[in-house]
Amino acid sequence: MLGIDNIFELIFIVGFVAGSVIRKIYTFRCRHGKAVRKHKSVVDIILISAGGLAMAAPLFYIFTPWLDFADYHFPEWLGWIGTAVFAMALLLLWRSHADLGRNWSAILQIKQEHSLVTNGIYRYIRHPMYAAHLLWAMAQGLLLENWLAGWAFLVVFVPLYLIRVPKEERMMLEQFDEQYNQYITRTGGIIPRFRK
Ligand code: SAH
After folding, report:
1. How many angstroms separate the CA atoms of 143 and 52, rounded?
2. What does the pLDDT profile of the chain (196 residues) look like in tens digits?
3. How far is the CA of 128 from the centre of ligand 1 (A)?
4. Which region, left, alpha or beta, applies to residue 79 given φ > 0 means left and ψ of -120 to 50 means alpha?
5. Which atom of ligand 1 is nearest to the CA of 175?
6. Which domains does the chain have, with CATH numbers?
7. Cα of 126 from ligand 1 centre, angstroms
């Protein structure tokens, strides 16, 4: 049947809309600010575009019959775990955008008046926004009973993360030098490190 057939698809759509609204609001707020350093590569652009498509795949799964060949079934409790994971992803996405403020950009760049954020969620973890995307990718798989729509984003996000983070940290070190070096020693990358 086409359309939303179960509670987990509904939960996914609600989370997807909430996440898209958070992203849109902050993209609008961050639209100004010229770049003083930019790291744009073809691989990055291909992976970001593939990531966008993989995030949208659930809409094709829910609203068209095109991906039905990849359906499968799993126990209901996995869907409830997916719901909790999606809620955490949205919370992290919101907090990381709120704390990063105008320093955020989809591509790797340093803007004029860029400052190093080390407070809020960034006190414990250097990549909360990527952690949010990783949780989102896992939640997508746990909420949707379809191999393609469920897991495509995770398959794209893992290489994107592995390629992007070393480049981002190199760029931040070039810009903030000892301040970023110190920051690395006190924080976790994608898993928070809590200090006394
Ligand atoms: N890796 C971070 C930010 C992702 S957005 C996270 O996962 O939350 C990518 C942009 O954020 C990069 O272009 C970089 O300029 C900026 N950035 C990353 N960490 C930052 C920090 N601690 N303070 C200020 N800007 C940061």
Report:
1. 18
2. 567 889 999 999 999 999 999 999 999 999 888 889 888 889 888 999 999 999 999 999 999 999 999 999 999 999 999 999 999 999 999 999 999 999 999 889 999 999 999 999 999 999 999 999 999 999 999 999 999 999 999 999 999 999 999 999 999 999 999 999 999 999 999 999 987 6
3. 9
4. alpha
5. 15
6. 7-186 (1.20.120.1630)
7. 8
